[in-house]
User: What shape does this take?
Amino acid sequence: MIGIKSLLRSAVAVGAVVGIAVSAAACSSSKSSGPASKPAAAASSGGSAAGSAASELRLGYFANVTHATPLVGVAHGDFAKALGTTKLSTQIYNAGPAEMTALLGGQLDAAYVGPSAALSAYVQSHGEALKIVAGATTGGAELVVKPDITSAAQLKGKTLATPQKGNTQDVALRFWLKQQGLTANTDGTGDVSVNPQDNAATLDQFKAGHIDGAWLPEPWASRLVTEAGAKVLVDEKDLWPNGQFSTTTLVVASDFLAKHPDTVKALIDGQIAANAWITADPADAQKTVNSELKRITGKSLSDAAITRAFTEQRVTNDPDASTLQTSLDHAVAVKLLKSTDLHGIFDLSILNTELAKNGQTAVSDAGLSKK
Assistant: This one.
């Protein structure tokens, strides 16, 4: 198991690779999700005996519809009920690279994050820092553009945005452009200029005509469509076999998983309950997610935006493990990551045990659980 010094070195490395600048601005990189939360620099979780329950679980996630699982899990009380006496402290982030820097730096114990950022943290820590223990969302990412853009060829000379350099949508856009024969270099040069920036700034800049489109997760793609007149040029699910690809996964720091497997089990139990409720009662879940977005950001989504966003993605406990190698290959192809052996990145043993208890089918690790 790696020590804290190694983790901190890895955090610096991840920041260098993806160009992270953690901002204090509201919803730009991280934000407390409410009175029950602690700052990201809180002390380490309590409990030192192997297998003991942690006194605290520090969880990171986004104020995005693609993070409906933690939004509902917190608001609906599923996490708190499952965790029992373990205190849940939450922290809100805007994009994965900054969130993974916090996890590598020992400021988070678990996080909901896109696969590209999880891969980056795994690669930079030489496969030691984290485990993917569950999926959370599939779908919910699109390239939306000005109405007069009807083909990839028309993007030459245009400016597009993504949430943050090296995040899942940033990798997806750069790789898709490469497939279309267009360059989009990480230094901003090339046939297409890709500007990673805060999602709220992307909406404002699109409205003002300063950018031509963006590859975004929900609800931001839907907001550009419903509020700014954008149209969908690429729905990412059309690029994957059977439309299945991971948008959000649940990762846990390796040392936390080793010390507190019962706490991780409780968190996964809370997720299973939250996802079951979202699936059984999507109308109320949609209202709950919108209410949480308002609590966190100060503004709820329009009915049109939240409804559209919910139809574009689906909650799931399955991390779509078979797609992870492809995600890594895409990041390598656009020079955002180096190739690495992914064996050992998953630990789905707790998830599959708990799924069985709930009468649900086990999910595959694609052979990537063991080194």
The chain is about 40% helix and 20% strand. Residues 4-140+245-357 form a domain with the D-Maltodextrin-Binding Protein; domain 2 fold (CATH 3.40.190.10). The longest helix spans residues 261-280.
